[in-house]
Amino acid sequence: MTALRAFAIAALAIALASPGVAGQSTRMASLSPPIVIGHRGASGERPEHTLASYELAIDEGADFIEPDLVLTKDNVFVARHENDITGTTDVADHPEFAGRKTTKTIDGVAHTGWFTEDFTLAELKTLRAKERLPQLRPDNAKYDGLYTIPTLAEVIALAKKRSQELGRTIGIYPETKHPTYFASIGLPMEKHLVAELKAAGWDSADAPVFIQSFEVNNLKLLHTLTKNRLIQLMDSSGGPADNATPSYAAMITPEGLRAVAAYAWGIGPNKDMVDTGEGTPTTLVADAHKAGLRVHVWTFRAENFFLPASLKRGADPKGHGDVDTAIRRQLAAGIDGFFTDFPLIGATAREAFRAGK
Question: Hey, what's the signal peptide range on this chain (predicted)?
């Protein structure tokens, strides 16, 4: 860690510390928008969905850490971006699991590889995580083979432990991945997730938890099962895999947003639905707020590959551009929170915005 980066983290720690927060570590009273969400942890700097990635995100100032949730054969929630673990673990290097490679159709798309639902937790724990985007994040690939696949219980324990240590609330922001698919193979997610959060003492509207999904019907079911805050994810194209509504475009009309507000606390749109990065915002934030919904956008990444032309710096796709400006533009547009692979950049931009700089 460079001296400058270490100083930035230390300065943020001071800015984020609030007297009396430690005693409120299981409630959201100390968290105020706009919130910074560590997307799969600090996934721009460590292999995603590892305890090391979540830990770094917390150190860098994230208010929430985001575990994408899939299920094992023995019905345990683990944190992986997809149930297909071919690209994020060393499973292909394990000859004992060669026979489990298969092809499955998930949400209408064929995938060939290895899948969490075909492994017990004990078997998954013999695997090690690896970087999903090694061409863009070669420094992350240096950590390949060091970390195991964490369970939801381990993520919750980390958030509680660090909340106590830091004296500020660290929340979790789980996403149910492919809930309709998992229900179709006898592994429904909703009651299981609610029970695990309740066991952690996080079963109220002010618990440090947001539950998110790109699907609709599982959020509607969760709305009947829990008081936890629910976030309807949306993309700039396509629609929910459960076909509960024709398209995400239909969901961001005034009528569509009112319908979402009947079961969700907020929306999680692709950031390009708010501002493509060129500084001209749409009306989505204002429309959502009018419907009583908060807005948490995804996902800010620092690499040129992910940035609009005006914010790229140099020609190297893995080089870092001006993501700080992209974040500040959306903060100015009124978003209530944002996901980022680089929480230090996000938290620094947020603190400067709060200070009026």
Answer: 1-22
Q: pLDDT value at position 283?
A: 97
Q: Is residue 22 part of a domain?
A: no
Residues 6 or more apart from 253 whose CB is under 8 A from it? Answer: none
| Residue 114, pLDDT score | 98
Q: Is 7 a domain residue?
A: no
User: Both tokens of residue 226?
Assistant: 């829990």
Q: What is the pLDDT of residues 195-237, one digit of tens each?
A: 999 999 999 999 999 999 999 999 999 999 999 999 999 999 9
Residue 89 tokens read as: 């673990």
Query: Rounded to two decimals, what is the model's pTM?
Result: 0.93
The answer to whether position 2 is within a domain reads no
Q: Tell me, what's the pLDDT at 277?
A: 79
What pLDDT does 19 receive? 39
Q: What is the pLDDT of residues 115-137, one digit of tens each?
A: 999 999 999 999 999 999 999 99
CA 167 to centroid of chain Cα atoms: 23
What the block records as the tokens of 340 is: 């980022």
- The answer to whether the CB of 313 falls within 8 A of the CB of 304 is yes
Question: In terms of residue numbers, what domain contains 329?
Answer: 29-354
With residue 219 as reference, give the H or E element that holds it: helix 217-225
Distances (CA, A) of 326 to 41, 239, 308, 329, 350: 20, 25, 9, 5, 12
Has residue 17 been placed in a domain? no
Domain containing residue 183: CATH number: 3.20.20.190
Question: What is the count of structural domains for the chain?
Answer: 1
Residues 6+ apart with CB under 8 A from 331: 34, 338, 349, 350, 353
Cβ neighbours, 10 Å, residue 21: 18
pLDDT for 357 beyond 90: no
Closest residue by Cα to residue 171 from 219, 231, 211: 211
